[in-house]
Design goal:
The protein is an alpha+beta fold. The protein contains 17 helices and 4 strands. The longest helix has 30 residues. The chain starts with 23 loop residues before the first helix and ends in a 6-residue tail after the last strand.
Length: 536
């Protein structure tokens, strides 16, 4: 059982925050993502301000966030399967091409004065869908671009592409809106997707391994779900993401309404969003220093408190103090997301990285989408200021919850390198990869004085088997021999079992099994049983 620790995990890296920028592939794709995200933020501001001008009301305005984020709930898991099963570079190229086509269509509709609030929300949903289908692949390629010791720095720089865009995009959108109007804003977004596709086409990515032994869609989806369900470290990261995203979504959803309260135009609204982005960029500089001195759990405890300061400022203060305090919220935002993203990337093994990232996106973006809708409804009935005040109060509770629900020890530090030591079993017939389900058993001769210790160690082995594809795991003790114990579990197919043994077991999984085997004598006896209908 993995134990929690209030001071773990702690990062003591001395890697420069800007070290990944020395790698050409990372640098080019980083700028491509930055440009694309600037376009996306310009699109968001243009969409929200179009609805403000149309007097659409707080609920409809908040639905822009819901429409852009809700597709993550529908498509993230399938997108993760696709990114683990097909070439990620090609998926990203086609995804950006599709986004560009949608953005061009939206530009044409807006230029022809045919845009309505509900047409806009429909386009926003479709653009959110293409984003959801590519997000797991974007996250999964990051560890391919930099050495392992630079993953934390690359994750922080990845935050710059989002939050630097948040600083530049809204302000630029406000300027373009005042000079050229909504259609030009949407057109710039289309060009940003084209630029990202060109950068991805330039990237000469090494061939993705194991594509010839590609899993079928449904088994791959289920394998990803089983992994997350059995991985306590990942589940805790997801819980922390949801706890933060639900109250934090109020600020993003209701900031246009705050701009109305302050009597601002589109340029003023862009400055409010820009303050959040400036804070996030400043956080990139501050965060490495903070992570050397404090544990990640301290950072994710303090961040909600800082974010709450900006939320309450947006609810009640005048423009200038609210603008300054929103910078603190930006620092807090990047602090939480960088810690959670880096922890996720360092904890997920390669074989399920896209699917694990997809579940993370599903949880975080899905919670943001639901929260945006709920806070919009709350603002409609209670008023935007009261809704934001409640959000700030919940953020304080989220901070306090870190005392009882911290990130677990081992997050981001365990050995996730694939271990390939597997003796091919000798079978009396050659099964097809699709043959199954398969019952796998291991017989252990346990030292008499170590039975209880062996059973305790096998609890971790159970989680390992379930993470890597097994189910219906059982441990039996012989009624005839006091030293004999039998482990059994099912796998969906013989191909799934081969993947478990050759592509999924990590160094940590081997170490877990080793800790159990120290209580046994001799080698365990392995057996494989197939349904009678699948044998010759």
């Amino acid at each position: 059982m993995v134990k929690a620790a209030s001071d773990a995990p702690k990062v003591a890296s001395t890697v420069s925050a800007w070290a990944p920028m020395a790698i050409p592939a990372f640098r080019v794709l980083w700028f491509a993502q930055l440009g694309s995200n600037i376009g996306t933020w310009m699109q968001t501001v243009g969409a929200q301000w179009f609805l403000v001008d149309a007097a659409a009301g707080a609920t409809v305005i908040a639905l822009v966030q819901t429409a852009s984020l809700a597709p993550a709930m529908l498509f993230s898991l399938p997108a993760g399967v696709l990114a683990d099963s097909y070439d990620r570079r090609r998926l990203l190229i086609w995804g950006n091409a599709a986004s560009a086509a949608l953005a061009v269509a939206l530009t044409v509709v807006a230029a022809a004065n045919l845009l309505t609030p509900w047409t806009l929300l429909a386009f926003t949903f479709l653009l959110g869908a293409t984003s959801a289908l590519t997000s797991p692949a974007w996250q999964a390629i990051q560890p391919e671009l930099v050495p392992r010791e630079q993953i934390g720095a690359s994750s922080a720089l990845g935050g710059v592409t989002v939050n630097g865009a948040r600083a530049v995009g809204p302000a630029l959108a406000g300027l373009v809106l005042s000079v050229a109007g909504v259609p030009v804003v949407f057109g710039i977004n289309a060009l940003s997707f084209v630029a990202a596709a060109i950068a991805l086409f330039w990237w000469r990515r090494p061939p993705q391994e194991n594509l010839d032994d590609r899993e079928q869609f449904t088994p791959a989806l289920l394998a990803g779900v089983r992994y997350v369900a059995s991985a306590g470290l990942i589940r805790r990261i997801l819980l922390r993401a949801a706890l933060f995203a639900l109250p934090a979504s109020a600020l993003w959803a209701l900031l246009p309404v705050t701009a109305q309260r302050l009597g601002l135009d589109s340029g003023g609204y862009g400055l409010l969003l820009g303050a959040l982005g400036v804070g996030a960029v400043a956080g990139i500089v501050v965060l490495p220093l903070a992570r050397r001195r404090f544990s990640d759990n301290v950072i994710i405890a303090v961040s909600p408190l800082l974010f709450a300061v900006g939320v309450v400022a947006a609810a009640y203060l005048a423009f200038l103090p609210a603008l300054l305090l929103l910078i603190l919220s930006g620092v807090a935002w990047i602090g939480t997301l960088t810690v959670l993203n880096a922890s996720l990337q360092l904890t997920l093994p390669q074989w399920v990285r896209s699917r694990g990232a997809a579940v993370y996106i599903l949880v975080f973006m899905g919670t943001m989408a639901i929260g945006s809708f709920l806070w919009g409804v709350a603002a409609q009935f209670l008023g935007a200021s009261a809704a934001l005040a409640w959000s700030g109060a919940i953020l304080v509770l989220v901070s306090l919850s870190t005392r009882f629900l911290p990130l677990l020890r081992g997050t981001g530090t365990i050995d996730r390198t694939i271990s390939l030591t597997w003796a091919t079993p000798s079978l009396i017939f050659e099964p097809e990869p699709s043959d199954g389900p398969v019952l796998v058993t291991f017989s252990y001769t346990v030292r008499p004085d170590s039975v209880e210790a062996f059973q305790h160690a096998m609890r971790a082995v159970e989680k390992s088997r379930r993470r890597t594809g097994g189910y219906r795991w059982r441990l039996y003790r012989s009624g005839d021999r006091p030293d004999l114990m039998l482990e059994s579990f099912m796998v969906p197919s013989w191909g799934e079992f081969r993947r478990q043994q050759t592509q999924r077991l990590t160094g940590e999984d081997r170490e877990i099994l080793r800790r159990a085997l120290v209580h046994t004598e001799g080698e365990p006896e392995e057996r494989h049983f197939f349904q009678a209908s699948t044998t010759p």
